[in-house]
Write a structure and sequence with these properties.
The protein is about 25% helix and about 35% strand. The protein has about 130 residues and is α+β, with helices and mostly antiparallel strands. The chain has one domain: Sandwich (Jelly Rolls), CATH 2.60.120.460. A hairpin with a 2-residue loop joins strand 5 and strand 6. About 25% of the residues are buried. The mean pLDDT is about 95.
Length: about 130
Amino acid sequence: MEFDLRTPRHDAMVDITAEVSRFVAVSSIRNGLVVVFCPHTTAAITINENADPDVVHDMLAQFNQMVPWRQPFFDHGEGNSAAHVKSSMIGAGEVIPLVDGKMALGTWQGIYFCEFDGPRSRRVRVTILPEGA
């Protein structure tokens, strides 16, 4: 299962929890694992607080401080090396326990698609595995 996503700007964290939850809701699997995967090398998937938008702002600011967009030692011809580095730092996917037909996320947790080279049209893949698979 997968869905398309249009990211709003160059650096963004888009809460995709509701979209992933829709796949879980129509699945016949009640207990197991939900795998959320990003098939792009300049984007990532993470889980973090989704209650206070300042968290997203602060995270993006910190990523940009740690890996500024332009570095004299970046050689990649497309000019988006920072996006590749950030993607690898965060990772391409997350695994969430599925319990009684619902993702076992913490109270303040949401699933985020992290864009580091947008705005772009992106794709997110969701796999739901039964317990014991």
